[in-house]
Amino acid sequence: MSRTTKTALSLVAAAVLAGCAGGAQRAIGELERTPAGGGAFTQSLAQEYLALAEKEYDLLDYQDARHFAQKGLSAASGEAVGADPLSMRTLQSQFADEAASLRADTVDYVGRFESSEPDQAARAQALFDCALEEYEEYWQVDAQPYRLSACVDELQAMLDEAVPPTISLDADVLFEFDRSAIQPEFEGVLAEVAELLVASDEEVTIEGHTDSIGTEEYNMGLGQRRADSVRDFLAAQGVPVENMTTVSYGETRPVAPNDTPEGRALNRRVEIKR
User: What's the total number of domains in the chain?
Assistant: First the structure.
């Protein structure tokens, strides 16, 4: 290739890069000037995407800077902007399942908290979009293990602190046989559950379940006493009573056959559901 040709290609590349930088800069500037509309979640999301766009611009990643700025503009207009799809990134196979699982967990988290904790929900979604970019770019940096430190770690910590859809507690461990008083050695586990519920401030239902030994009426009462006992303990740990509803299903909702000791043990449980 001649020197003239090389020079011409360099000029073209420089022009393209300048164009990308200009487009990103204009999008960021427009987002900075646009008043955030919609609800608290979209307003917070607009600010999260602005910060993400500025970070990418400083890293000379103008394409992603423009992408995030445009998402911020959509959020600022009140549009319900979702997490980036996996299909928009080129992912190595070793990260595909991990990224898919992280996206599913993030979408679930956002759906649960966008009304009650809009800032946290917006932060989680922006962190996922950042994380997805990191999954794609990992192979571009000489396989240096920089990936995931900036976004995935923080996002995973947020997800880990959230209350899972169902917390199932083994009644054989939680209570003595045919009793509803919580055994002292199990209080530490329930205290950890209480910390999650206090942090999330979510409303939950505490369900009491039994096996089929005994009458249906007796089991319904035993399930209710056990659910109430768990509620009272959690309330003493700081969980608002108004956030907790108790109900007994007695023996009516088994998760295993009641014709074996193992099955009956699985059915004796207390479930905390958000």
Answer: 3
Same domain, 266 and 180: yes
Among residues 218, 222, 160, which one has the least CA distance to residue 192?
160
Tell me whether strands 244-250 and 166-170 are parallel, antiparallel or unpaired: unpaired
How far is the C-alpha of 82 from the C-alpha of 268, rounded, in Å? 40
User: What global pTM score does this model have?
Assistant: 0.61
Q: Which domain holds residue 245?
A: 166-273
Q: Do the Cβ atoms of 254 and 271 come closer than 8 Å?
A: no
HEC string of 203-246 equals CEEEEEECCCCCCHHHHHHHHHHHHHHHHHHHHHCCCCHHHEEE
Q: What is the mean pLDDT of residues 12-25?
A: 59
Say if residue 233 is in the same domain as residue 154. Answer: no
Q: Which of 162, 188, 206 is the last residue of a domain?
A: 162
At position 236, the amino acid (one-letter code) is A
The token duo for 108 is: 């679930």
**Residue 2: both structure tokens together:** 């001649």
* Nearest alpha-carbon partner for 52 in 128, 120, 1: 128
Residues 6+ apart with CB under 8 A from 170: 265, 268, 269
Among 146, 162, 178, the domain-final residue is 162
pLDDT in tens, 110-121: 988 888 789 999
Please tell me whether residue 26 adopts helix, strand or coil conformation.
helix
- Residue 262 shares a structural domain with residue 184: yes
